[in-house]
Amino acid sequence: MTVTVLGISGSPHRRGNTETLLDSFLEGAKDAGAVVEKVVLKDLDYHACRGCNACHRTGECVVQDDAITLFDKVLAADCIAIASPIYTMGITAELKGFIDRGQYLWARKFVLKTLFFTDEHIRSHKGIFISTAGQNWDHVFDGAFPMITAIFNGTGFEYYDNIIANNMDEYRGIKNHPTAMKEAYNKGQEVVRVIGKIRNESN
Ligand SMILES: Cc1cc2nc3c(=O)[nH]c(=O)nc-3n(C[C@H](O)[C@H](O)[C@H](O)COP(=O)(O)O)c2cc1C
């Protein structure tokens, strides 16, 4: 069965450093035989969570917009690659707004207890975080990791790896980075093969 890979670009800057790095990852995944799709959050029509807590009773979000359609795609994918540049030491507003909208899945898991991912499901579903940052600080991505962990946990994906590149200000663009583009391509190939292997073992 074909491995499906969904790339979500959270950068408002089209074809910038982060989306370019995501593209390299998706190219690697495609070359390894996966069916890949890229969704650009900036092009979607969705709103921030209202905090109405209606989902705690129903398990559904009262706002039926593009965020819900995208969560359906997330839940159907074998691998998700979530990409965001670092904005003010964290992820972009576009991505945070989307992640918050997954609160109805949190409600299903922890309030209503109607959603459960088996260990086997989690092991065969991999999440990758892709990010770029301007500064050359080792800790520049630290603010983003907990939010990425939250969406992977909430949607049943094992946090497989990060593809991160800092110091973009000095490199003047991801294409001048010595290793990141190749690393992303290789990681795309690798993760598809790993998922394929896990599936073969369990069949
Ligand atoms: C609003 C805004 C805030 C930013 N904040 C940070 C930051 O806190 N730390 C950092 O290292 N870079 C920061 N940057 C730089 C971007 O992370 C960096 O240029 C990134 O590679 C941009 O990716 P993109 O081309 O996909 O937009 C910021 C850029 C913008 C536009």
What do these coordinates show?
This protein is α/β, with parallel strands linked by helices and 203 residues long. The chain has a single domain, classed as Flavodoxin domain (Rossmann fold), CATH 3.40.50. It is built from nine helices and five strands. The protein has helices spanning 17-31, 55-58, 66-76, 93-100, 103-111, 119-123, 145-155, 168-171, 180-202; strands at 4-9, 35-40, 79-85, 126-132, 158-165. Strands 2-1-3-4-5 form a five-stranded parallel sheet, with helices on both faces. The chain is globular and about 50 Å long. The model has no long low-confidence stretch (mean pLDDT 97). The protein binds flavin mononucleotide (FMN). Flavin mononucleotide (FMN) binds at residues 11, 13, 16-19, 85-89, 132-135, 140, 168.
Q: What structural class results from the helix and strand content?
A: alpha/beta
What distance separates the N and C termini? 11 Å
- Report the helical percentage: 40-55%
Could you name the CATH class?
Alpha Beta
Strands side by side in the biggest sheet: 2-1-3-4-5
Total domains? 1
CATH overall fold name: Rossmann fold
What value does the average pLDDT take?
A: 97
The CATH homologous superfamily is termed Flavodoxin domain
Biggest sheet layout: 5 strands, parallel
In total, the number of strands is 5
Q: Low-confidence runs (pLDDT<50, min 5 residues)?
A: none
Q: So what's the overall shape?
A: globular
CATH architecture: 3-Layer(aba) Sandwich
Layout of helices and strands:
Layout: E1 4-9, H1 17-31, E2 35-40, H2 55-58, H3 66-76, E3 79-85, H4 93-100, H5 103-111, H6 119-123, E4 126-132, H7 145-155, E5 158-165, H8 168-171, H9 180-202
Parallel strand pairs: 1-2, 1-3, 3-4, 4-5
Helix pairs in contact: 1-9
Bound molecules: flavin mononucleotide.
